[in-house]
Each structure stands twice: as structure tokens, then as C-alpha cells.
């Protein structure tokens, strides 16, 4: 049985999603931050008919849909919900789950990335390393210098205005933080978290200026950021498709747990 969820379902839903907090990062964050009664967000759940236990979830955020299930679920039932929405633009989720919607929804484009999780940090940033290269936590006054660094890096394709407003919003709402390093009067390396919630967070925006690469700055700031977050009891995850970046993440302790797909209608 599939039905729309409401505030009375919050505790059971978060307990269900909390069984896999890294994979369910976006679901947990959206439910904690926006609940069930917003125009831009809806949540459905599928329940076992006999026990009444929640077995699968589908969330709509604006024009994007995100499904999750730990066991076989009513794929067609969720697909029917999405097909009734003419505004739908994207389905995203674990590739093993998202791929099941292929027979029911026509997608024009698909993008996949590796998905990694950090359960145990491989090491802390050394005191000497931090003394030699102080890593700072960003405030609102640092947003422009950090985004200027990202403007000059080809891998970052986000609209400059959206990048700046998104970073400001994350800092203002406490849903993200940024760690950065300055050299020669400018920001030369940075890494951020996003979608922070009570259980998990995602590492994003890892960047080093081309003139300062090969000095271990990315490893230093990502390790510092991950250390702060894991001490708060958060499970960490990230997407990547760059082999060079993967080597940094795996030294810190990230391990691949699957792939993540974004499927566009």
C-alpha cells in the first residue's frame, strides 16, 4: 500500500531512513528541514500490508524525485505517481534503485557517479601540518573569495550566482560549512559540506588552485572537515568521477558503496 506521508509519520520515517544515513542523506535533510506540508515537497511511503511496516519511500522536491527502498518495492506504483506530474524533470538515487524505473518512465539522459562513504577516519590532520597551513572555517565574509577560486576551475560548472547564493544559504541555515586555506592573500584550496542533518552530511566542492596543487592542501582540508563532522556523530558521503580525487578520498578513509544516478526526463 502506498500513501502520502504526514507529520505523524516523521519518527517512523526518520528511523527507517536512519538505517542507511549516508545513502539517505538528501531524504533525511529534506524531511528534517522542510517536513511534509510545503508546496514544493511531498513524501510517499509504501507499507507492508500485513505488518504495516514502512518498506519504501518516494520524495518530491520541486521537480525532482528521489526513491529509496531496502527491499523489493512497488516500482510501478511509484512510477505512476511521477508520471502524473507534468513538472517532473529528474529522478535521482542509488543506481540499483533508479535503474528499476527504466521500463516505466522514458528518460532522455542519464548521468552516473561513484558513491563513497566514510565510516571511520583514517587519520587526523597533524598539529604541525595545521600549524604550517592553517585551515579556516568560512563565514559569510569569505564566500566571495572561495567562490572566486571555484570560478577559475573547469570542473565547476555551476552558475556563479547560484554558487554564491547556495554557499551563503548553507552557512546561514547551518546545513553546510566550508573549510579553506589562504596563501599569498587569496583562497587557494577549499572543501565544503552540504545537506547536513542530524545523521549525515555530504562532502562537495573540493577545489585547489592549479598553482598550488601537489602540496597536499586538498587532503589537509578534507581531513579537517571530515574530522569535525565525524566528531559530531555524522555519517559522511560523497560523489566522485575523478580518479585523482578518488585517491585523496580513499586515503582519508572513504570506501565505495555503489553508484548514484541522475536520470532526466
Automatic annotation (TrEMBL):
PROSITE patterns associated with the record: GNAT
Domain called N-acetyltransferase: residue spans: 138-265
InterPro entries cross-referenced by the UniProt entry: Acyl_CoA_acyltransferase (IPR016181), GNAT_acetyltra_YdfB-like (IPR027365), GNAT_dom (IPR000182)
Coiled-coil region list: none
UniProt protein name: GNAT family acetyltransferase
Native organism: Paenibacillus forsythiae
